Amino acid sequence: MTDRLVGTWKLVSAMREDVATGEKTAFLGESPSGVLHYLPDGRMMAIITRSGRKAPAGRVANATEAEALIRSMIAYGGTYRCEGDKVIHDCDISWNQSFTGTKQVRTMTFEGDTLTLSPPPSPDPTDGTMSVRKLVWVKSSR
Question: Dihedrals φ, ψ of 63, to 5°?
Fold first, then answer.
């Protein structure tokens, strides 16, 4: 499976199912952005942003603007390994220090040049909602 992962992936969609209610939402908006890199040496990096982010009014974000920007993104990097239909990210750096030093397990499914990654039911890192999230990625041609 590692050979299929290696490369650059672009985020297509991010859906969340709330464990308590079953409600499904596009938890990063209708057009989120994201890039996921899996390198042949076993390193990975991901950066994801919610759609509709607003740029700061000036060159430097004020405290309110900076908080809104950081709360509308997910970013981390580390090593990865495949075990069956799972990819395990061992995070050694992250946008949210609570991810650093953790193992992020994702079920992976492939369909053509599309990859779907989904963690087990867990708190959403953007707002804490107990949910199952599915992020759909397409392999970048460049």
Answer: -60, -45
From first to last of its 142 residues, the chain has per-residue pLDDT tens of 688 999 999 999 999 999 999 999 998 899 999 999 999 999 999 999 999 999 999 999 999 999 999 989 999 999 999 999 999 999 999 998 988 999 999 999 999 999 999 999 988 877 888 999 999 999 997 6
CA–CA distance from 55 to each of 45, 67, 75 (Å)?
23, 12, 18
CATH topology classification for 2-139: Lipocalin (2.40.128)
What pTM value is reported for the model? 0.88
Domain ranges of the chain: 2-139
